[in-house]
Amino acid sequence: MEHMKERERRALVCLLVKEMGQTDSWAAETHIQKCVYFLQEMLKAPVGYGYIFYKHGPYSFDLRSELAVMRARYQLDLKPRYPYGPSFILGFRGEMNLGLVTEYEDTVRFVATNLSVKTAGSLERLSTALYVTRKNSELTDEEAARRINQLKPHVKIPQAADAIYELHNLEEAAREVLTAQ
Question: How many distinct structural domains can be found in the chain?
Answer without folding.
Answer: 1
